[in-house]
Amino acid sequence: MIARLTRNLHTWLPGHAGHLIARARAARIEGPRHLLFALCDHYEPLWGNADAATGAARVQAWAQGYPALAHDFTDADGRHPRHSFFFPGEQYDPGYLEPLATLARAGLGEVEVHLHHDRDTRDGLRRDLARYLADFARHGHLGRDRDGRLRYAFIHGNWCLANARADRRWCGVDDELPLLHETGCYADFTFPSAPDECQPNIVNQIYWPKGDLRRARAYDQGTPARVGELLRDRILLIEGPLSLARRPGRLAPRIENGAVTANDPPTRERVRSWVDQGIHVVGRPEWVFVKVHTHGAPEAQAASLLGEGGRALHRELTSRYNDGRRWVLHYVTAREMFNLAAAAMEGASGDPAPWRDHAILPPPAATGIAP
What we know:
It is a single chain. The chain is an alpha/beta fold. It has one domain (2-25, 32-366): 7-stranded beta/alpha barrel (Alpha-Beta Barrel). 32% of the residues lie in helices and 18% in strands. The chain contains 11 helices and 14 strands. The strands form 2 sheets. Strands 1, 2, 3, 4, 5, 6, 7, 8, 9, 12, 13 and 14 form a 12-stranded mixed sheet that branches. A two-stranded antiparallel ribbon has the order 10-11. β1 (33-42), α3 (52-70) and β2 (83-88) form a beta-alpha-beta unit. α3 (52-70) packs parallel to α4 (94-105). The protein is globular, with a radius of gyration of 19 Å. The model has no long low-confidence stretch (mean pLDDT 94).
């Protein structure tokens, strides 16, 4: 446990310290705060080298179990929890994508792009992404620009965005960030990844990568997203909460990285820690972005997320963070979270709900329109 806690602390602890200082100096927020909550799932039906039948059973567990969970909870806008399925392109199967389209049509989630690759090339990655986008689009997934171009959010497998590892494994493409942008990606949701070595020193931020974006680990340098400055020539990085947190009944702290698992389910203390990081667009602190992640397809994880673990999470969110006085809760997908960040950068304020579809339009499956 101690080895895990201290591993790669140097990559992010200075950034976390800076975040704590900035948070302590922040002005008091008057009026209610809006909690924008997204659960982003590295959704891998074939996790653990499962066979096709196991993968199909895992998808059906969600197709059948998620509506029963979600329909018991609503946010301030009367919307149910909305799950973001980041589906691995290399695991594509029509039998997996169609049930997820059914959930999208019911307003319970959207599908985005996840990818595992190793020792890849720029041309190979571009070719694969084009195929995956076309595959997903046939089922009505992925958002669109107003001119109809496919757009997507992204999570990198093995955390290794932009060829980040010292051993050069699990990617291979230094200039992955500009390539993702060229192929329609609008935002990356990979981080945090601590204690993994790919974790950036930039912590608890929504930010734009800066400098030479063709270099490996180009995300290590960035500038915070702020009101009045919306960039259109690169992807946005939307981080989830990362902190050292106290554990009830224990002296040693834990790394709180927003990973929702069967062994580490949501608790009141964990949710409070996520919210307390106060991730926001600079100049709009009353819109608090909480993006947590999971690997929800394997049986143990699904049983927790679709059972008591998921119910505990949504009970806490809807009871403690939706009183209309101190907090107003909004369930969002990854796409909607990006849209709200973009709207904030363009000056939107007050109730964020009208801006859910501000920049990237909903996927056809979510609107009931045939792809």
